[in-house]
Each structure stands twice: as C-alpha cells, then as structure tokens.
Amino acid sequence: SDEFQVDTDIITLTRFILSTQQKVQHATGELTLLLNSLQFAFKFIANNIRKAELVNLIGLAGASNSTGDAQKKLDVIGDEIFINAMKGSGNVKVLVSEEQEDLIVFEGEGNYAVVCDPIDGSSNLDAGVSVGTIFGVYKLLPGSKGSIKDVLRPGTEMVAAGYTMYGASAHLMLTTGQGVNGFTLDSSLGEFILTHPNLKINDNNKQIFSVNEGNTIYWDAKIQKFFQDLKKPQIETGLPYSARYIGSMVADVHRTLLYGGLFSYPADSKSKNGKLRILYECFPMAFLLEQAGGKAVTDSGERILELIPKAIHDRSGIWLGSIIEVDKYLKAIGKL
Ligand code: P6P
C-alpha cells in the first residue's frame, strides 16, 4: 500500500521534561527552563561539529586551555556556545567549564550551578571519532549568591546530569534522578526525540573491558593482575573478555550504558589522581550509571558520587559499568 508509518505522537525533550516536571513536587519550572537552554547549546554545538569538516574549523586554535591541553578550534567554539547559552538562560548563576581556569559567576538571580566539559574527547575530532558535551547541575546552596562553595560538593547533590554524544546523530542521555532517558536529535525537526525511555544498563554479564592498556606499566600491581585475569577464559563463559577502547569518554561510556561491561581510567604513577575530572566527567557519568542500574567507584572502591572535590578541576580514578562487572574489581581489591 502507499501508506507509510508516521508516528504522530512523538515525545520531544521539552514535552518529556514538562511531563516529568509535573511529577516532581513543587517544581518551579526553573529546571525545565535550564534544560531547554542546555538543549539549545547541544543543538548549536552539534551543528558546528557537522560543519567542522566542511569549513575546516578543526585544527589548532593556537591557544591552550586551563589544563594545558592543546586547544582545538571547536573546543573554543563549544565553550563559548555553552557559556552564552547558560548566561542567556537567566537561571544559571555559576558555571564551571573544563576550558576555563576559574569558575564564572553570572549577573542576575540564577538558582543553578552548571559544570561542563563542552567538547570532551576533542583530541579525537580530526579522526572523526564521536566526541561529546558532559554536564552536571547543582541547585545553589540555600542563601548562596553564587560562589565556588556551590560546586565543591558531592555528586550526590546534583539535580541533573548527562551528556550529548555527537556521532552519526546527536544522542542526549539525561538523568534528573528518576532514571535515565535517551534522546536523539532529529535535525530536520530541530528536536531531541525520546528514543531510549527508562534506559537500564545491560547487565547480562557482557564481558567487555574498556581501559587504556598503554598505561599498564604505570598501574599498581593489583590493577595489572586484575586486567591480566580478564584476558583468561572466564568461569561463566569459558571465554576471555573483549577489549574495547575509543579514547573518548562519552563514546566509551555510551557503549557501556548500551552494551554493558566495565570502563576504567585508573590513577597511575604518571597521573597520581587519575586523568578524568571529578566535577564534569566522573560525577555526571557516575550519576547516569547509578540511575541506569550500574555502579561507579574510585580506585579504592569508594562511591564516586560521595567524593568532595577540593578544587574545580580535581581528578579521580574511576571504574564504572554494570554492577556485576564493577563488583569483580571490588572483589579483586578486597572491598567485597
Ligand atoms: P587517554 C579525552 O581526552 C579524555 O579526556 C576522555 O574523553 C577520555 O576517556 C580520556 O581523556 C582518554 O585518555 O590517556 O586514554 O588518551
């Protein structure tokens, strides 16, 4: 027949947020407004990443960011887009960005603090690897006028977190503390559409580990042994684990959320506190994994979300994935 299936009742991110807002007691609609400003930033960044290959935005911008990494033009553009979107939202008071040495305090009466890595994994951009924006949201502390105290807090106090991965399409994975929901950008509509409702991590013992084995000689002996053991035939399956490592946290975590397995970036003798940043890489990913029925711990087996950063660019070792996989690590270090 010449008829074609049209879903005339799609759930956009805006509609989804409004529906969840109605369920949250005393919701003022402010978080809804903030999430709409966030989604604008994601659409604008996605648009620029798409164009990057065409107008050759990729390539060194000359400057270097607060943590000394060589900065790519898209990093600069992503950071500016994000800062302007948060400033324009009218309800963000404090902003921490991986690209900014110090936190930014906006004028106005905003009630939220946002932490973000505007383009995480950007060193892979030239290779066409999926990169992403990672973000977390805190409500300002009671009576706060906006200061560093609003963000040097445990991840358990975040009210929202997630990432948008810019791959074949843009995928937004979002939690506001009631589970994880995934949205895919329909660029012809300019809307994020709900495509992964109430996402739960695949915990069917999918034996994948994801770590940069180039750091093996820098790991402590227990961690070296842990990964050596994963490479042997496992009791449950008679097979060794598969190794999958992209080197872009958003892409590696996205695969872990959808397929299961274990992702890790341990601290080592080269990076004593680990490489990934607590506020805008570890916390948002840990929040998502826990809300999807997974787990996220530090090298010593503590819950990532209970860390309290001392400085806005502090780092931590991190192990995240399905409970069954993270528990194997906890057993290996005698925490279970
Ligand atoms: P390595 C990308 O630069 C990043 O910050 C994360 O996205 C990624 O997980 C990690 O660093 C990769 O680091 O040392 O394995 O190249």
TrEMBL record:
Its cofactor is Mg(2+). SUPFAM superfamilies: Carbohydrate phosphatase. One of its GO terms (cellular component) is cytosol. It is an enzyme of class 3 (hydrolase). HAMAP family: FBPase_class1. Residues 204-331 form the Fructose-1-6-bisphosphatase class 1 C-terminal domain. This is Fructose-1,6-bisphosphatase. Pfam families: FBPase (PF00316), FBPase_C (PF18913). The keyword Chaperone does not apply. Its EC number is 3.1.3.11. GO terms for biological process: fructose 1,6-bisphosphate metabolic process; fructose 6-phosphate metabolic process; fructose metabolic process; gluconeogenesis; sucrose biosynthetic process. Keywords: Carbohydrate metabolism, Hydrolase, Magnesium, Metal-binding.
